[in-house]
Amino acid sequence: MAAVQLSGIFKRYGDTQVVHGIDLDIDDGEFVVLVGPSGCGKSTLMRMVAGLEEISGGDLMIGGTRANSLAPQQRNISMVFQSYALYPHLSVYENIAFGPRIRKESSASFKPRIEAAAKMLNLGGYLNRLPRALSGGQRQRVAMGRAVVREPSLFLFDEPLSNLDAKLRVQMRTEIKALHQRLRNTVIYVTHDQIEAMTMADRIVVMNAGRIEQIGRPLELYDHPANLFVASFLGSPSMNFAEGVIVNRAQGPGLALQLAEGAGIVLDSVPATATAGAKVTLGVRPEHIETITQTPDAVLDVEVVEPTGAETHLYGKIGGNTWCVTTRQRSRVEPGQRVTLRLPAEHIHLFDTESGRRLV
Ligand code: ADP
Q: Quick check: 313 and 325 in contact, CB under 8 A?
């Protein structure tokens, strides 16, 4: 087991810097997910931790030891990639035994570990099979078996589920999480899939353009996104946004929020830190919007209705942006109808439009 510390880690390819001073402390036994859009530098960061990519600057500590210049095999790490890279001519057993044999371990020492790993990963009945006689999920489990028998202090997963179909991805997600709960090892897991991040992580690190946008527990990030990027990245369907300006209330003291483009939303609960004239962006998640008939905060002219079975998504335009409202009830609303909405104050997020930073 190992804690991992990254301090001021950056990466340059020639003149181009792609990772800009990453600071991240990962506790021993923690499951940390690096998530962000394609090209944001997640894999580069992971490969620097693995020793597959040179670190241009900063300090990497693994288990209390500076690891910047250690060779990959000296870092006591196991890595599982998107492509499982199994040897097609070797059985499941021999694929898993490949690493220990290369390291010249005796078969008496690694055989019990392989059997235990196979049992844990439900591969017990397949040890003599060749990879081509396995399903995608079973192959992915063999790749994990190979990582597990190494008994590493740190597991690195780089988009391990991207090649699997949707159903299998959900199943393997649960299996990897269960595996971690049993082994309690330190895991760094890279994905572009925010649902994987939300469901698997102890802590999520949201990255964008080579920088960390926010670090926190999944629901902390979901409920209190630090900025517009995190707010829009986490959640599906994603958070609804509308730009507006803080104004003095028409009646009585205090401030209100007037949205642009005649959207007609006026919210009375505006944080005390806001000042009249400030340009803000309101955010509200689809599942937090209520459909009501009296004194609505906004109206939605419904353009598209999507029933998913468990819930219904209603899409339409508010203030020039497409909004989504999620209802748990079976909805009879049809395209072309108008729905009146309440935006509960406790679920409203406000961001500074220019900097994108959260105001409350
Ligand atoms: P992610 O894993 O988030 O999709 P990557 O870490 O693969 O992102 O890439 C981050 C950035 O670094 C991208 O802009 C990519 O084009 C660039 N990059 C990655 N590898 C190289 C390389 N060998 N040479 C130059 N640029 C690279």
A: yes
